Please model this.
Amino acid sequence: MKKTKKLAALILTLVMAFSLMAVTAAAYGADEHVHDGTCCEETIQPRKPAAPVCPYCGTVTTDMGFKWENGIRYIIFECHGCRDFSTRVRY
Model:
């Protein structure tokens, strides 16, 4: 009985190890996938940053659009609660 349990544990371990290797290889991509411009790293855009909180009134600021300065894109955020706070975040 002990040898049967050890053999079953060994077989299950080997099956799990093989399945992890197979899933990883499948996730990486096989040769049948054609790489075009839609799946390239150059087309992936960064996520937009979260709106900061106004330090004066504590409300979340509102996105007012983009602004370019010296070739760098910034998002302008303004507070509509107290209208005293305006900031920019690099994007």
